[in-house]
Design a protein that fits this description.
Order of helices and strands: EHHHHHHHHHHE
Number of strands: 2
Bound molecules: fe (ii) ion
Oligomer: single chain
Strand content: under 5%
Mean pLDDT: 96
Length: 272
């Protein structure tokens, strides 16, 4: 079991967000903004899944998971709150969150379904977040230095995602979830996640008026497929999830621990 600390981040979310806050790059900004737009609905679903999964455990296993589930929910709730403030600024910039409503609609089909489906979906999404988080923590300079507050926000969120990457996975196993369904959900979530991310990123660029600029496409190609490209570097870690003996703890979390240790002045641990 992992000891999960809930941290209150010392950032000012009142100040407005600049149009191209991420290294002055239109594509990268649109992509991160798109991800931020997915968090309020996504992280609420992860919290609900993990809470409901926990309730479905036999009492002896509940004891084993209690503290970790509490930490997980506390961390996701904090992420959700800060990203809601972040998203309010995006709205003021004229961006429209299309992802949120579509995800809410899609999640309706899960009502009344076996909780293991919920937890498997959460575990698949958490794998995505964990590998993206590690990528970001390894290459923090890609966030630029225009808005140090947002750099801190993204790296703190990444560090905690990496920290709690085992929770949903372990819960799924404790609930008797099998390998086949875990894989089936990962395949579906991959398609849905990539499509939704792309769709919202394109929408953000359209609203921003930069979709058809050569510099946007060049930035996208570099960021996704360049030497330090996101797709290039996360494809291997993503694929590992399909191994029968995979466990999230097999993937390194050193970058997360390092960031949390080196930036202790930027947050306050919250005691329960
Ligand atoms: Fe999160
Ligand atoms: Fe998470």
């Amino acid at each position: 079991m992992t000891d999960l600390v809930v941290r209150r981040l010392l950032v000012d979310m009142q100040a407005p967000i600049a149009r191209h806050w991420c290294a002055g790059d239109a594509f990268r900004t649109a992509l991160f903004n798109a991800l931020s737009m997915s968090f309020p609905v996504g992280e609420q679903f992860f919290m609900d899944s993990v809470r409901n999964g926990f309730k479905a455990l036999p009492p002896e296993l509940q004891e084993k998971f209690r503290a970790e589930v509490q930490g997980f929910v506390g961390q996701e709730a904090t992420h959700r709150r800060l990203h809601s403030l972040y998203n309010a600024h995006l709205e003021k910039l004229g961006l429209v969150n299309d992802w949120d409503a579509r995800a809410r609609e899609r999640l309706k089909v899960l009502q009344g379904q076996d909780v293991r489906h919920w937890v498997a979906i959460t575990a698949a999404n958490e794998h995505f977040t964990a590998i993206l988080a590690d990528f970001l923590l390894q290459h923090p300079d890609l966030l630029g230095d225009q808005d140090p507050r947002l750099v801190t926000l993204w790296l703190w969120h990444s560090a905690e995602e990496s920290e709690h990457k085992c929770t949903a996975f372990d819960l799924y196993r404790a609930l008797g979830g099998d390998h086949e369904w875990r894989i089936r959900w990962m395949k579906r979530i991959t398609t849905i996640f990539l499509f939704d991310t792309l769709r919202q990123t394109v929408l953000n660029l359209k609203r921003d008026g930069t979709l058809w600029k050569w510099s946007t496409w060049r930035g996208a190609a570099l960021y996704l497929f360049g030497r330090r490209g996101l797709v290039r570097l996360t494809y291997g870690p993503w694929r590992e999830y399909f191994r029968r003996d995979f466990h999230p703890s097999q993937q390194d979390s050193a970058a997360s621990r390092r960031w949390l240790a080196e930036h202790a002045s930027e947050y306050v641990p919250v005691t329960a």
